[in-house]
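Colleagues,

For the teaching module next term, I've prepared a clean inverse folding example: a structure given as tokens, and then the sequence designed for it. I'd like students to try predicting residues themselves before seeing the answer, so please don't circulate the second half yet.
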């Protein structure tokens, strides 16, 4: 038995189970990304070095490697994410194919119409939204069947004709206006062959009753669907809910058998395999907390990996960071986890490579990130004027205090005679002298602190140590000024 504890289970599709248990026997690691809401726009800026280093170690990641393999054994997105819309490409390809048909260029017709069908398969989520798009697909299928028939490709002509029947096109939907009575003749011939085959059935069940089910782009039910008397062959099962594009499963209906597709929507609704990255996208932190570990482990099992590394960008100890963790694909404790802050100062390539080595199990702790020359220069220029200004104030205050203490409080006249023209200081100047010297001591302490302490470490609570000294010295000078 193929037992998948969480996620999709297709009990009628033997190929899926074989893909899970038939993976590589050696230790293997899959690398996925997980986010809440949306993937941050600056992710590639910080993730590229880590991903490149993990790929160099033989780990599977990205759409070309991990994503395509996951889509082959599980499902593919209902929308491709391509910039050119289906409404621009599909009509152009179908019209070009139809014109080639009219011109007798049947190979050209096959080329354009085949590309039209490929585009439609990648955009199943868009095809189900408008009848006009589905009608274009019908025209393309009809044109392919007729073009192969004109070239005497009997098997290909029959194959495309059967696809028309599996798409649930009724006889009155066949495009006789554009393709003539030959199209109807081809449709009836395929239907006669299908009538001689033993039909199969398809049963689809989703654990969320609000999920819509489409089979070959035709609505089939909400939460569950069962289709009887199906022509044996390949079918597409699309599940979607709300604004999410949904996922598409390729299943094979065998003669006289029921193929069952059981879908766990929490897994499918968050799974992302294209474009650009592979992983899960959750609607909330609560959902990520509940499902992330089970989901990424299931992804690893689907592709035959023993370990999975999860990367994300989030808050770690109050700082926006690149966070990574490694899990077993078969349960058990967390292997390791770590983070590299990316704000307020971007990490060095050395530290990002250190995170990759740490997650790969090659080192036991993350290396420190030495400050860059730019950061040091910026920090020095930021605090230089404070240090030198404070030093100057200290010297000036000390000189003023010594001068005041040198005055004994008596009158001082140039000729030794007292008089109104003589310069006179009161006896309180002695107190002012001591106060000024006290202020110079406080300022000296501040100056020493600023010169000795590394400016790069002058942040957080340690920086608060300078505030009492600065405040105290200022208060002393204010009192002295009052005298």
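(Answer key — instructors only)
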């Amino acid at each position: 038995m193929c037992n998948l504890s969480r996620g999709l289970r297709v009990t009628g599709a033997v190929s899926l189970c074989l893909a899970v248990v038939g993976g590589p026997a050696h230790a293997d690691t899959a690398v996925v990304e997980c986010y809440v809401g949306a993937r941050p726009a600056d992710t590639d800026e910080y993730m590229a070095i880590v991903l490149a280093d993990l790929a160099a170690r033989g780990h599977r990641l990205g759409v070309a490697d991990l994503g395509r393999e996951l889509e082959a054994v599980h499902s593919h997105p209902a929308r491709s994410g391509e910039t050119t819309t289906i409404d621009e490409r599909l009509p152009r390809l179908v019209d070009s194919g139809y014109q080639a048909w009219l011109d007798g260029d049947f190979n050209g017709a096959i080329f354009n119409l085949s590309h039209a069908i490929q585009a439609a398969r990648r955009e199943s989520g868009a095809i189900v939204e408008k009848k006009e798009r589905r009608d274009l697909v019908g025209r393309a299928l009809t044109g392919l069947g007729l073009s192969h028939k004109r070239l005497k490709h009997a098997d290909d002509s029959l194959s495309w004709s059967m696809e028309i029947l599996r798409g649930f096109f009724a006889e009155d939907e066949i495009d006789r206006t554009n393709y003539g009575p030959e199209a109807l003749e081809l449709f009836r011939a395929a239907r006669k062959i299908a009538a001689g085959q033993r039909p199969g059935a398809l049963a689809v069940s989703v654990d969320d009753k609000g999920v819509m089910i489409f089979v070959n782009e035709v609505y089939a039910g909400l939460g569950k669907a069962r289709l009887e008397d199906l022509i044996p062959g390949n079918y597409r099962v699309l599940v979607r809910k709300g604004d999410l594009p949904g996922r598409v499963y390729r299943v094979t209906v065998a003669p006289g058998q029921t193929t069952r597709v059981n879908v766990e929507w929490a897994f499918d609704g968050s799974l992302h395999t294209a474009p650009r990255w592979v992983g899960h996208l959750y609607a909330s932190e609560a959902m990520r907390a509940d499902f992330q570990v089970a989901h990424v482990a299931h992804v690893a099992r689907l592709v035959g990996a023993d370990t999975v590394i999860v990367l994300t960008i989030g808050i770690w100890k109050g700082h926006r960071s690149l966070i990574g963790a490694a899990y077993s694909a078969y349960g058990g404790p967390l292997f390791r986890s770590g983070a590299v802050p990316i704000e307020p100062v971007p990490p060095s390539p050395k530290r990002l490579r250190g995170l990759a080595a740490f997650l790969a199990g090659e080192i036991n702790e993350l290396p420190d990130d030495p400050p860059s020359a730019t950061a040091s220069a910026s920090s020095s220029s930021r605090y230089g004027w404070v240090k030198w200004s404070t030093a100057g104030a200290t010297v000036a205050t000390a000189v003023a205090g010594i001068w005041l203490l040198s005055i004994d409080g008596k009158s001082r006249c140039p000729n030794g005679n007292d008089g109104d023209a003589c310069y006179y200081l009161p006896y309180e100047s002695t107190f002012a002298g001591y106060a000024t010297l006290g202020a110079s001591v406080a300022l000296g302490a501040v100056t020493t602190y600023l010169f000795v302490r590394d400016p790069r470490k002058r942040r957080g609570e340690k920086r608060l140590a300078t505030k009492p000294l600065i405040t105290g010295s200022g208060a002393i000078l204010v009192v002295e000024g009052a005298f």
